[in-house]
């Protein structure tokens, strides 16, 4: 009977080990599932905020997958860069125009002096013979 009890204990230990391994495996799977569900919750919260923001801003309020959102944002950035570049070109043209005007004003006195060739003569002197 003692021999039978030892065999029963050995079988019992094997069963306990199997249950422990199974429980550890289940815990690991559940932790992974919790992590996955937590990520899904975070993504859904972000999506929900995005949708609420679009509706508040007068948008259509439909779901855009991240790829479409990235594409839309990239296009908006390209448009902003083009607008900024156009504005900078206009500013540079304006700067050039200001420099030309300043140079013209500086040279205006020289032009006025050269246009009146008789300014050096006395008006009372009369014609030269």
Automatic annotation (TrEMBL):
One of its GO terms (biological process) is regulation of cytokinesis. Keywords: Coiled coil. This is Endosome-associated-trafficking regulator 1. GO terms for cellular component: centrosome; ciliary basal body; early endosome; midbody; recycling endosome. The keyword Coiled coil applies. Residues 20-54 form a coiled coil. It comes from Aromia moschata. Belongs to the ENTR1 family. The keyword Coiled coil applies. InterPro entries: ENTR1.
């Amino acid at each position: 009977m003692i021999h039978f009890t030892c065999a029963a204990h050995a079988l019992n230990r094997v069963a306990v080990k199997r249950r422990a391994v199974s429980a550890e495996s289940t815990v690991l799977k559940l932790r992974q599932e919790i992590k996955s569900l937590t990520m899904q919750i975070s993504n859904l919260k972000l999506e929900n905020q995005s949708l609420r923001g679009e509706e508040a801003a007068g948008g259509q309020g439909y779901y855009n997958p991240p790829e479409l959102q990235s594409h839309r944002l990239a296009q908006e950035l390209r448009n902003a860069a083009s607008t900024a570049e156009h504005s900078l070109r206009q500013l540079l043209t304006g700067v050039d125009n200001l420099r030309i005007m300043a140079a013209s004003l500086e040279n205006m006195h020289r032009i006025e002096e050269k246009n009146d060739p008789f300014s050096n003569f006395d008006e009372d002197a009369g014609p030269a013979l």
